[in-house]
Design goal:
Elements (H helix, E strand, L loop, with lengths): L1 H20 L3 H52 L27 H4 L7 H4 L7 H11 L18 E2 L14 E2 L4 E4 L16 H8 L36 E5 L28 E2 L8 E2 L22 E2 L5 E5 L4 E4 L5 H8 L9
Parallel strand pairs: 3-5, 6-7
Antiparallel strand pairs: 1-2, 3-4, 4-8, 8-9
Length: about 350
């Protein structure tokens, strides 16, 4: 009993001593400083891991686009067409060839499990079809947006509408990816294009003697009215871009003010969905630039034709053979140019 009582008293004394010991102010500040330092070390690692995940998702998006294009080529006998102009959107009743006003991102929809969006205008009267088209362009497609840049949302449509075959939309889904039009002087011939289907059919069949708004100097794999086959990629499918990320002004990810990002992803050939590897348009990481739009000529001040991305290390590119690579912004200009041209004979290691 004596030993037991002594043990209890010792435990009681130790408890009192511990209760009064506590933390001093200096010790508390040291602990807080250590925690702050650990957080400073940890947060960049977390951010880097998140960006790596977003970059991987972006690469997977492009990989799926590449697979869809290969499936399209096998089924239709050619790669998706570049479509007509920005004044027209896709029409499911006009097939997949050069009679199709919509561009590659419209004609790939059935091969991306988006056949319901592709067919929204099908089988309707003219009035109902125009309204259905205006509703279609507001539908975003998650696969078309890089998660490092922006989510798949409905973004404002701020341009004065000049659409021929649909009503004016209130907003639109957009794409962060563009087709390779080659290394020629980029041009979308910013004319209005045909005013109706009758005029368009004359143009398509070569009976329009002027064809003033047709871009003819593109040697990539997708361009205005194009119906290229992989067999025409004579430099090799592993040496030629198919799709890649497009450069954008980061202040205009969601405004619709950039001339390279002011239309819907369902329009025909336009700088919204087509980019060049011409030396005047090197790949760039997203950065603020003047919103220049020259009607007579394009030069190095116009960045609406450049490939690029929001990623720090480089931009993702899907090649015609289905491979996916990250391309440095510092790539040799001539190498970048050769990777855009399907038939120049230059093979890049």
């Amino acid at each position: 009993m004596i030993v037991r009582g002594l043990r209890l008293r010792l435990i009681s004394k130790a408890g009192q001593l511990f209760a009064f010991r506590g933390f001093t102010l200096v010790e508390l500040l040291v602990v807080l400083a250590i925690i702050s330092l650990l957080l400073q070390l940890l947060l960049p690692a977390i951010q880097a891991a998140r960006e790596a995940s977003r970059r991987a998702q972006c690469a997977n998006n492009l990989r799926q686009l590449g697979i869809a294009a290969q499936t399209h080529e096998a089924a239709q006998g050619h790669l998706p067409t570049g479509g007509w102009t920005h004044t027209w959107v896709g029409d499911p009743e006009r097939g997949f060839g050069n009679r199709q006003p919509g561009g590659w991102s419209f004609t790939l929809l059935p091969y991306l499990e988006q056949g319901n969006v592709f067919g929204m205008m099908r089988g309707k009267s003219d009035v109902a079809k125009r309204q259905a088209g205006a509703e279609m362009v507001t539908v975003p497609i998650a696969l078309m947006n890089c998660p490092s840049r922006r989510p798949a949302n409905v973004y404002p449509f701020v341009r004065a509408s000049s659409f021929v075959n649909i009503n004016e939309p209130f907003g639109c889904g957009r794409s962060d990816y563009a087709a390779n039009i080659g290394d020629g002087i980029p041009s979308d011939q910013r004319a209005a294009g045909p005013k109706d289907f009758q005029e368009a059919d004359l143009w398509i069949t070569g009976k329009d003697p002027t064809q003033a708004w047709v871009a003819t100097d593109h040697n990539g794999v997708i361009s205005q009215l194009s119906q290229f086959r992989f067999a025409e990629v004579t430099d090799g499918t592993s040496n030629t871009y198919l799709f890649a990320e497009k450069f954008m002004h980061p202040g205009h990810y969601d405004t619709g003010e950039s001339y390279g990002d002011d239309q819907s992803l369902y329009v025909g050939f336009d700088r919204d969905n087509a980019r060049s590897t011409h030396p005047d348009h090197p790949p760039l990481q997203d950065k603020p630039v003047p919103l220049v739009w020259l009607r007579d000529s394009d030069d190095e001040t116009v960045t609406d034709w450049n490939f690029g991305s929001a990623h720090a290390a480089g931009f993702n590119a899907a090649f015609c053979d289905g491979s996916l690579r990250n391309i440095s912004y510092d790539i040799d200009p001539e190498a970048h140019r050769a990777l855009g041209n399907r038939q120049d004979g230059r093979i890049i290691p």
